[in-house]
Prior knowledge:
- There is one protein chain.
- The chain is α/β, with parallel strands linked by helices.
- The chain has helices spanning about 5-25, 40-55, 75-80, 115-135, 175-180, 195-200, 210-215, 240-245, 250-285, 295-329; strands spanning about 30-35, 60-65, 90, 140-145, 150-155, 165-170, 185-190, 205-210, 225, 235-240, 285-290.
- It is globular, with a radius of gyration of 23 Å.
- Mean pLDDT is about 90; it is low at about 5-25.
Amino acid sequence: MRFPHLFVKRITATLVGLGVAAAAHAQTAWDMPTPYPASNFHTENIQQFAKEVDAATGGKLKITVHANGSLFKANEIKRAVQAGQAQIGELIISGLANEDALYALDTVPFLATSYADSKKLWAASKQAVEARLAKNGLKILYSVAWPPQGLYSMTELKTIGDLKGMKIRSYSPTVARMIELMGGQPVTVQAADLTQALSTGVVSANLTSSATGYDTKSWEQLSHYYDIQAWLPKNIVFVSKKAFDALDQPARDALLKAAAAAEERGWKVSEEKTAYYIEQLKSHGMKVQPAPAALQAELLKVGEKMTAEWAEKAGPDGQAILDAYRKLK
């Protein structure tokens, strides 16, 4: 029996529609809020990570990156992923320090001031950080360090006394504590809002990396950068455990493989670009220099005090991490 032509067309259209629906069902789409501009090296690394996941899963897992706090602000990202409003996100670990002192470890001043030491500190603390985030239903995929943190100012600084009363941008509780010990006034400003905060006088100094100084064109408001290399804070890319577990095994494997590659690439790029960022600050007229001896000595004393404070807050777990880290040095 021969089917009428119109009937055949209808069957074909139905089958095609079912195929499209099945393909759509097979594809998983994740939203990924991040706090930094699209041009920032962390974001560029994440974009490449997302492309590699897409390619490795044959398009079955697509990650849409929402940069510069456009979907959720930096301090909202963890909660958004926990609540299922996004499946994956990026944040700076020390931004969670109010939840647990352990998260503040990599911003303890002068504890780990080089890339090599920062990697050792992460090796000593990673398991404990993973365990705490797991309690919130979150899984770390990878971590990447920022360049060493320096001190930006509108004026020349000779001693710590020159910072007294100055409004200084903070991005975590640990940074705020350091500013207090330096005699300044901490003002919390997220990276996406830093340019405006500087231009409107909300802050007149800043403790951050050469990368953030470059991203925000700090030379337009600030004249001095002191390369004190206080610490190398780390960002983590993390995922909802529920969303991760919902993937099939090949997709999970592809995600973890891309994450491992992103971590290796990110650390390498961070270190390589540090010199570039410093040169950019110089080329735009900013005076870049080490801290004067008197200022550096006073800052080191602040670091010693904060290390002791952190160990007391973090308790036995924190002391165990410090001991493990010092054995690796």
